[in-house]
Amino acid sequence: MARPHEITAVSAIAPGKVILFGEHAINRGQPALAMAVGLYARCRITRGATAATYRFKSGEHEQEVARADLFELGKQVDGYRKANDYAAIQKLAADDYFAPAKYILAGIGTAIPDALDFTWTSDVPISSGLGSGGSAFAAMVTAVTKLIPQQTTMDQKADWAHRGDVVAHGGIASALDTQASLIGGVIRYIGRGLADRVPCAPRLAVVIGNTGIKASTAEVNNKVREWVAERPDSRQSYFETIGALTRTGLNIIQRGDWAELGRLMNMNQLVLEKIGVSSPELEKLIDAAWAKGALGAKLSGSGGGGIIIALATPQNKQAVADAITYAGGTALVPEVPVAGARVDEEETKR
């Protein structure tokens, strides 16, 4: 096994995710269930040529940053978080595409090598609710920990990856996305600590319907926060209802009563509609899935656009996918659930 200082290049992949239950409620004291899906982000890291310099590349975005500036950004974001200055974090993320990645590296600290080049590729649709950012950050952390001298725990990796989502989502983000990508399978997350891996019965079939509408998680989170602030006492009950559905769904997933799980998903969707995070485009795809025999369907992610998930049977999942396509969406039928983030040993070079 190569020692960290001997490695010249390392690559890691991490899956996307869908939220089965718990959107928005997870930020308000309720549990959530999420599942890793077979769509992947990859991060490749190579040793850099310029001392005290980091280079980032993702699609059309490229940037170079000095080591000192990276740590200065970390202190800046820490200050914004302490002051609950969400507007400043949102502006930073809007102005600097790689601010989340920098904040991750600042959190890892002086253990990171002096010069690295980072390149991301992904087949997880962006701003769709599939955790494109979370999977990219999970892949990044999984790769970079191969290059630092100390042993790292899953708790540390989860904390570092979450820092990326905090910036990307405008200052408020649960660790649900990044932990689903890191841990894999089906997870239960209660809003703190490390998520629990949940046993999942066989023959779970999920169809994803993408509206193609890219909704900003930060903007949707702001909308929900303002909605709650209007009537904080009464509107908290909506999130408590989602929490109850999540707790019920936990046992159902383990025993594989998919018809009952679908019923709970339908109920969860009704609550999300009341909160105001659904949309006509999402509901059109949900109706199309129901019409072809989906056991249940709901939006997944922050809402405002993005995706739905439809619970199908192995026999009718293609019909559900065709119906979503006919209704104007893009249907995906990935493998579920899948393993979490891992280093691609074949791409790791001395």
Description of the molecule:
The protein is built from eleven helices and twelve strands. Helix 3 (99-108) packs antiparallel against helix 5 (154-168). Helices cover 43% and strands 22% of the residues. The protein has 350 residues and is an alpha+beta fold. It has two domains: 4-198, Ribosomal Protein S5, domain 2 (2-Layer Sandwich), CATH 3.30.230.10; 205-332, 2-Layer Sandwich (Alpha-Beta Plaits), CATH 3.30.70.890.
Q: What would you say about this model in short?
A:
The protein is α+β, with helices and mostly antiparallel strands and 350 residues long. It is built from eleven helices and twelve strands.
Structural class: alpha+beta
Percent range for β-strand residues? 15-25%
* Helix coverage percent: 40-55%
Number of DSSP-assigned strands: 12
Count of discrete alpha- or pi-helical segments spanning 4 or more residues: 11
CATH architecture level-2 label of the largest domain = 2-Layer Sandwich
**Element-level helix/strand string:** EEEEHHHEHHHEEEHHHHEEHEE
- Which CATH first-tier class of the largest domain would you pick? Alpha Beta
Low-confidence stretches: none
- Give the overall shape, derived from the CA principal axes: globular
